[in-house]
């Protein structure tokens, strides 16, 4: 039977103060009185509290382990991010431990809860697409564990974040379609209210607005991120309808490839009749026929910078939170050629 670990929640409950106050006291923050801090330290000793993470002021140790939470490892984007993380971690004497959520908020929550009994110096996290509650991450931060988000971030939590420029990337993708002569542009996107999904949707809408084109709600479909989702979305856009699009902006390349497959099954010429553009620059976008126009994401750089930021938080408890946004690159291929 596993031993129950004393946490800062136990200290807070015993003293009838907030968890945040206990966390700040343990980290010797300036906004906690000397008296309160001493009470917290005394109670920590009385309860035999042993912090799991080296970020508090009580224990100065390092496991040299960094946790990385990602939805999947089987696609190009995340495997490239991991490569960037690994390079920085190893060059600084740290190991990385991967945790896969399968894009499930329930699995994500279970992983994070179990991490309280693990030995980590910090955590890099890409949240699940359907997650709406990030309290479990906030609890880890309050407990003294440095956390940095990348790609899909918890926008409500104040900590460092590293993202690609989703808004301007989407704007450039849609403007490219307009420049190619397409006028009825659909958007097959991800789940609603996900931070980067909303930014790409906003870029799509604003690009249409700039060129005085309507953003028809019937041409916007929210679903998952897979190739199958892309096929289903495009089939839905075309089946039994007269008001069909002449171009499709996909939230990622997997959905863009699904769009191409669906159009080919319906004997619609990709590019000439209906343009398709994605977002990622997955290597398969150069293999599919026709090749897929896309916006290249700086996945490797995102991994490197996220890990560098985390190491700064690990080494300096009061290191200020930073939000870094990296630009993408428009790559034009056959799927948006009308020739």
Computed over alpha carbons, the radius of gyration is 23 Å
* Percentage of residues in strands: 5-15%
Largest sheet: 6 strands, parallel
CATH superfamily of the largest domain: Response regulator
Poorly predicted regions are 53-60
By oligomeric state, this entry counts as single chain
Terminal Cα separation, in Å? 69 Å
Question: Which overall shape is indicated by the principal axes computed on the Cα atoms?
Answer: elongated
CATH topology of the largest domain: Rossmann fold
SSE pattern: HHHEHEHEHEEHEHEHEHEEHEE
Question: What's the CATH class of the largest domain, please?
Answer: Alpha Beta
Account of the 3D structure:
With 339 residues, the chain is α/β, with parallel strands linked by helices. The protein folds into three domains: 39 residues, no CATH class; 130 residues, Rossmann fold (3-Layer(aba) Sandwich); 139 residues, Rossmann fold. It has eleven helices and twelve strands. The strands form three sheets. It has a six-stranded parallel sheet, sandwiched between helices. A four-stranded parallel sheet has the order 7-6-8-9, sandwiched between helices. A two-stranded antiparallel ribbon has the order 10-12. The protein is elongated, with a radius of gyration of 23 Å. The relative contact order is 0.13.
């Amino acid at each position: 039977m596993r031993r129950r670990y004393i946490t800062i929640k136990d200290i807070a409950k015993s003293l009838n103060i907030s968890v945040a106050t206990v966390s700040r006291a343990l980290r010797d923050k300036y906004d906690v009185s000397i008296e309160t801090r001493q009470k917290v330290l005394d109670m920590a000793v009385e309860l035999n509290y042993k912090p799991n993470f080296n970020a508090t002021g009580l224990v100065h140790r390092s496991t040299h382990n960094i946790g990385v939470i990602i939805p999947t490892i089987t696609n190009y984007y995340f495997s490239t991010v991991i490569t960037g993380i690994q390079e920085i971690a190893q060059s600084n004497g740290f190991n990385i431990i991967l945790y896969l959520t399968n894009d499930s908020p329930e699995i994500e929550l279970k992983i994070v809860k179990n991490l309280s009994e693990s030995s980590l110096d910090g955590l890099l996290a890409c949240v699940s697409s359907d997650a709406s509650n990030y309290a479990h991450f906030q609890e880890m931060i309050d407990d003294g564990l440095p956390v940095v988000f990348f790609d899909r971030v918890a926008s409500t939590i104040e900590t460092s974040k590293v993202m690609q420029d989703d808004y301007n990337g989407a704007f450039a993708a849609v403007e490219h379609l307009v420049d190619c002569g397409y006028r009825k542009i659909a958007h097959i996107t991800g789940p609603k209210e996900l931070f980067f999904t909303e930014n790409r949707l906003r870029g799509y809408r604003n690009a249409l607005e700039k060129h005085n084109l309507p953003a028809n709600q019937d041409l916007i479909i929210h679903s998952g991120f897979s190739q199958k989702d892309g096929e289903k979305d495009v089939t839905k856009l075309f089946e039994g309808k007269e008001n069909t699009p002449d171009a499709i902006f996909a939230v990622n390349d997997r959905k863009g490839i699904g769009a191409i497959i669906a159009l080919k099954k319906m004997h619609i010429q990709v590019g000439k009749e209906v343009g398709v553009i994605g977002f990622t620059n997955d290597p398969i976008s150069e293999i599919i026929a026709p090749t897929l126009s896309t916006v290249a994401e700086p996945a490797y750089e995102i991994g490197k910078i996220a890990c560098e930021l985390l190491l700064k938080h690990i080494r300096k408890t009061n290191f200020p939170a930073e939000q870094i946004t990296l630009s993408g690159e428009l790559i034009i291929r056959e799927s948006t050629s009308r020739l």
